[in-house]
Amino acid sequence: MSGLVTLSTQVALAAEKYYKWFENKSTDRGKNGFFTWIRHSQYGQNQAEELTLEISKLTDNNQAITKINEFLCANERRYHRHSFSSFLLDELRKIPNSPWQSLTPNQDSNKYSEDEVKNSLKLSGP
Fold first, then answer.
1. Is the pLDDT of residue 38 over 70?
2. Where are the beta strands (DSSP E) in the chain?
3. How far is CA 11 from CA 33, 39, 50, 97, in A?
4. Quick check: 12 pLDDT over 90?
């Protein structure tokens, strides 16, 4: 597993891509749809910012993994293709030997399976 700097970088990159997508400056994860503004409001942007800040303040790699997994497994988390959780998983799965590496979105819908994510992360831990 890569270090804390890599985790912090990937979380920040996911947030940046999410912001750009939200502002119609990117088509990562597809174009904005009619319901985009209802599902992906300021709340998602705040969540992205809060997680990025929390991870940047940590000094232990295992704490960061735990915090990220708690975020991804929270009951309020959704896995729409335009959710911050999906942007986050896209970046985290690029980290070799990470708990997220084996998670992949559905090829047709570009959605992650909420059950698969939560079951995988509850089993793996830091």
1. no
2. none
3. 24, 21, 11, 16
4. yes
With respect to residue 37, please indicate whether it lies within any of the assigned structural domains: no
CA 55 to chain centre: 12
How many domains does one find in the chain?
1
What is the domain range of residue 75? 4-29+43-124
Q: In whole angstroms, how far apart are CA 113 and each of 42, 49, 86? A: 24, 24, 10
Output the pTM of the full model: 0.84
- Residue located via tokens 């597809």: 30
Measure the CA–CA gap between 77 and 47, rounded to whole angstroms: 10
20: pLDDT strictly greater than 60: yes
How far is the C-alpha of 2 from the C-alpha of 39, rounded, in Å? 33
